[in-house]
Amino acid sequence: MKTVEDFKEGQVLLIDKPLEWTSFQVVNKLRWHIRQKFGIKKIKVGHAGTLDPLASGLLIICTGKFTKQINEYQGQIKEYTGEFTLGATTPSYDLETEIDASFPITHITDELIYNTTKLFIGDIDQIPPIFSALKKDGKRLYELARAGETTEINSRKISIAEFEITKINLPKVNFRVVCSKGTYIRSLAYDFGKALNSGAHLSELRRTKIGTFSVEGTLDPLNYIEKYLS
Length: 230
What we know:
Number of strands: 13
Shape: elongated
Order of helices and strands: HEHEEHEEEHEEEHEEHEEH
Structural class: alpha+beta
């Protein structure tokens, strides 16, 4: 059983973030229970890379002195699995917002889908979605988006090592992606739809790996609390 000193000296908690939880909620929940468990007022707790509320999967949580290693974990290669829905776009590039445009998909073949993935392998320029936590002029982009404001977003270099189509059942396309820090899978969905001369949005997302860490065998926050902090 972990002691208060273990958490203060530093722990890496591998959490399977549930759908609809924010990464911040996971951190807050675990921090509160650590404080309650050991009767302490303060403990450093942070996560190494945000997952959107509509995404599930691996979230690395660091405690105590190990919070200094967060940047190191954030910079590691990540693997995601998920689903694109072809033929429609949304302003957020995922299911957070309603469909704003529809496009034909009758011309899309399996061969076209497989060949189009090749356009995204390697170092590419990607524009982050406006519904993101990136800042511009001191404001989060999603704050501007929700206020109905438009703004120019600069592209940035990201790297995609692997982009595999695992299932096609139009309009649904399942995928696996291995990519660098800073990659937005929502933007990949949007750009993939454009490359198919159609549209697309992200309808499912799960982070399965960060560096050598895997989501396999991890616990969701509530199960972790029940096992280690109750």
